[in-house]
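Need tokens for this chain, all 200 residues.
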Amino acid sequence: MDDKTVRTSAQRDLELVNQAIQGDQSAYAQLLKTYRESIYFMMMKMVRNADDADDLTIEAFGKAFKRLESFNPEYAFSTWLFRIASNNAIDFIRRKKKASIYSIDEDYNDEDSKGVFEVKSGDLNPEQELMKEQRIQEMHRIISLLKPKYRQLIEMRYLKELSYDEIAAEMDLPLGTVKAQLFRARELMHEIMKHSANKF
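Here are the structure tokens for all 200 residues:
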């Protein structure tokens, strides 16, 4: 890659960053599309686990998007993003080493997610109906960024409104595994939603 290509890429990224700061959701999507694979492979080299690498990739973008306004345009966006991803992975590795062993059947509390995923129904005026539709569209957009197993769990729990037991039965998984993976899926969604201009 020559210097001209590097400059063009950096300029394109800067324009996308500025658009994203103004609330352009397509700019966020383009930045994620451009660097997701590269970040993922870097995460794989650091943690050597595909699931962890995928989770850390989403977390890295969530943290970067949350801090976009602090981005210094004197530096390349890619350099800034990779530093955030690298530091996040290092923190993850440290936490993993210190983490105590716990039972997968631990009861994960679902209360914190209420209100975040809830889309109220009932008698709504046209403006409220439009806002409801926008929230649903935004939820689908965020869900689409999750890995397939997390996306399926979130859709079953919050869109189909199945119980934990029903999800466990349908997916043929232990109840504790369903709870643990839903807990992780919600964490990832919260990271993504932190940068979103459209709050639930």
